[in-house]
Specification:
Elements: H1 3-9, H2 11-27, H3 38-72, H4 79-98, H5 106-125, H6 140-144
Length: 150
């Protein structure tokens, strides 16, 4: 796969690959016609790839927060909550289509997102943290299923 098509098909993977290539070039102390700060360029491009992971965690966290509230506060359910759930699922699907290499990281990122969602659910509902399970009570399939509501 060429760098151009990888850039278009999986930005996350492209960033990581380009950063690795720049680091190798910097290690070779390449004598370029135009001076480039290869080490810092590599770090910045790697950071762009990591931002895709951070977006996935953030979207999972918002989604999980609303799924927890949906489950624990049935009297407060609203169209707004349902809309937020749908929006996050759509954006997660879009992000994974644009960055297929993130699919392999979903379980790990989901665990990270759940910690934050659990804390926020306790704050937003006024319930003790212990009200919410320590580990995510939903499967990955349920979380990403457009029809699933707890």
């Amino acid at each position: 796969m060429s760098a151009v098509s990888l850039y278009e098909q999986d930005f996350h993977r492209w960033c990581l690959d380009q950063a690795a290539a720049l680091k190798k070039l910097a290690a070779m102390r390449a004598n370029l016609a135009v001076p480039l700060d290869l080490e810092n360029l590599a770090e910045e491009i790697e950071s762009l790839g990591k931002s895709q992971r951070r977006e996935l965690v953030s979207r999972y966290q918002v989604l999980l927060l609303h799924l927890l509230k949906w489950r624990h506060e049935p009297r407060r359910r609203s169209r707004s909550w349902r809309s937020t759930i749908a929006t996050q699922r759509l954006e997660i699907a879009r992000l994974l289509r644009q960055n297929p290499s993130l699919r392999a990281r979903r379980v790990e990122e989901l665990a990270d997102a759940y910690e934050g969602a659990r804390t926020l659910a306790a704050i937003e509902t006024g319930s003790p943290l212990s009200t919410f399970p320590e580990t995510c009570p939903f499967t990955l399939d349920q979380i990403e299923d457009p029809e699933f509501l707890p």
